[in-house]
Amino acid sequence: MTNRVDRGAVAVLVLVDIAPGSRAWGFGRFVVGRFDLYRVPGLRFFKVLGSGYESGFGLRPSVSRQGLFCLFDDEPAADAFLAESTLAARYRSHAREFFAVKLKAFSCRGSWAGMSFPVNAQAPASGPIAALTRASIRLPKAAAFWRQAPLTQRSLDGAQGCLFSAGVGEAPLLRQATFTMWDSVAHMDAYARSGAHLEAIKAAQRHGYFSESMFVRFVPSGAQGTWLGRRYG
Hints:
The protein is of the alpha+beta class.
């Protein structure tokens, strides 16, 4: 496919660990969260996301961690959302950890809910870089897909150059994603093209695990907040 050039679009990934006293509010985000996002200026695409246990990628969901992926028309709209929006302020006030990062795509393959993300950045000569891999898993293929997940997660945990990883998803079992940040393109490519991850990709292609999938590489900027005890920004 040919990537569409869009010089303005900026994505934002938000991850939060909801405080114990705000769990009801957090669960409510999965039910009514999308309604708050319809009114956000400059927002062209969004997904409210759950997270895996301990922010990992697996069958066990987290009861407190969740996320939000947004694509904005331009960087001022993304900045205004993070700095000024009532919704971002609510997430911060209900969270014991809040992390956000801005992202500009330099490559995109596939689609998410029928949308292919605009490419508006050059591939960086050096790191850091970020990647989002997401898929809609066919129900008859779910068991076979998830049998491979533990090995893939362990290989990611020990991957050289991986600075950050989080397992997220739109729906349990069937709509899943992994977000990672790396110190270089070389280290990310080495992980993607070897070991358990490569075997999982081959199996997915061979057996048709996915009804839709997408792999995007980003230039990250403006990382802020705290995640898994580590401070950013």
